[in-house]
Prior knowledge:
By secondary structure, the protein is of the alpha/beta class. It has helices at 18-27, 44-49, 88-114, 121-128, 135-144, 151-154, 175-184, 205-213, 228-241, 267-276; strands spanning 3-4, 32-38, 56-69, 72-81, 188-191, 218-222, 244-247, 282-283. It is 37% helix and 17% strand. Helix 4 (121-128) crosses helix 5.
Amino acid sequence: VWIDLHAHSTASDGTCPPAEVMARAAAAGLSVVALTDHDTVAGHVEAAANLPAGLTLVPGAEISCTLRRHGQRTELHLLAYLFDPDEPDFAAERDAVRDDRVRRAQAIVRRLQELGAPVTWEQVRRIAGDGSVGRPHLARALVEAGVVPDVPAAFTEEWIGAGGRAHVDKHALDPLRLLQLVHAAGGVVVFAHPGAEVRGPIVGDDTVAELAAAGLFGLEVDHPDQDERVRRRLRALAADLGLRVTGASDDHGALTGHRLGCEGTEPAVYEALVAAASRPPVSAGLPTS
Ligand SMILES: [Zn+2]
Ligand SMILES: [Zn+2]
């Protein structure tokens, strides 16, 4: 039994359509995969309709939040699983976060143009296709325009990295508010890559404790962007706070290297997650004879 609780499709910034993500999950030997596109549930219907036999889908979403404490803004990602996608308050908040992605991406394009980079909004829109636009699309536009040699080179202070010359702040959804919204929609929340310092500033243990007190289910410990030292620290923190530990690939298709199933979650943790949620995961229909 191999369980991967974090993957992206073209519904956000992954490079494979949802059906292909499901096919790749089965090919990678997974029994359970979560589809957790940024701020959207748009890929769930296609994924559910294209489940290979023996694969279970956990519908989810990765929600961008902003913690504002002591005059500082820290971005964090929370994974919401098995919630009611039609619950109106959470659905409205996902819409607000998504609308903001467009505003933000357009503002970044304007900054990049001011800095002399020959990128356009039309180009970024084309690269994003049907997906909700994000910084990886802007990075690919910078590569296409010959401004940087590759995607990582765009995520620096020189360009669109945290604190970079073309950085623009996001819509601020407080993580405690997000927990309320997901719980009201019957879902479960896991803190995505909480110690991934390569992605920018991380929140302190006091914040994790605050989220734990508000009903956070677990910490994503086994993640490709977290090394052994970070994982040990997070495992100890999870034990202290009574949080579960999950593992996942955070696969984005070609963008991250196809890596579905490179990390996994213990079956007992998965079962506890399902038990804590109000909606069941989705299994492939039995073949009709
Ligand atoms: Zn993330
Ligand atoms: Zn992710």
